[in-house]
Amino acid sequence: MRRLPHHTTLQKFASRLPSGLLDRVLRTFIREVDPSKPMVGVDASGLKPSRASSYYTQSLKPRRVRRYVKCTIAVELRSQLVCGFKARRLARHDLVDFKPVLEKASLGPGALVVADKGYDAEHAHEYVREELGAYAVIPPRRMEVPVWRTRGRYRKEMKRGYSEELYNQRNKDETVFSVVKRVMGEYLSSLSVRAQNRELALRLIAYNAHRLVNIT
Predict the structure, then answer these.
(1) Domains contained in the chain, number
(2) pTM metric for this prediction
(3) Is residue 27 part of a domain?
(4) Is 2 within the bounds of a domain?
(5) Along the 216 residues of the chain, how does pLDDT read in single tens digits?
(6) Is 5 within a domain?
(7) Is there a contact between 47 and 68 (Cβ–Cβ < 8 Å)?
(8) 20 to 30 A Cα–Cα from 117, which one of 17, 133, 142, 150?
(9) Domain housing 201
(10) Domain assignment of residue 40, yes or no
């Protein structure tokens, strides 16, 4: 192009993009590294919905609950590429977005899913192992409770022991969040929910492109 388009043109283009298309574009980066058995880590972090400082928002409405956008991502840990994400604005448990974000990642049999104790639930293990045909490493909460008092077959298996080496790979999820926030900022410029979702998807696509250039 001979000249850059006006910023409003880019905004209108981004707002009209279907979310399913952006999800497919995000998944295609994994094909470039072609992992035979992907190791996927799931984690969540918060982003600020505006540039306003915390001092300004707290002094303006001190009784209002602080708003933020929670972003849950699924990262292929060997390549540190994002293969799925889910954004949420209401205060909900991290486990609510566990299944949706893995559905977007389109995992196949033989994959490995790693998550922290916040995702400890028998139905999460059942989804990964019985529906996806994969294996999950999710440490159980309350390790002091004996195995015979722990509910769930897969949670009992985790209580008996799991690979610390595999679980420690989950730290790369936090590395991805750190890079995205440092390079692209920890706040969102868009105002509407739809535009914020598009902005998050485009940020993660830009991160994947940057990461793929560095590892190839």
Answers:
(1) 1
(2) 0.84
(3) yes
(4) no
(5) 688 777 777 777 777 777 788 888 888 888 877 667 889 999 999 888 766 655 555 555 555 545 678 999 999 999 999 999 998 887 788 899 999 999 998 888 889 999 999 999 999 999 999 999 999 999 998 888 888 888 889 999 999 988 899 999 999 999 999 999 999 888 888 778 888 888 899 999 999 999 988 877
(6) no
(7) yes
(8) 133
(9) 15-215
(10) yes
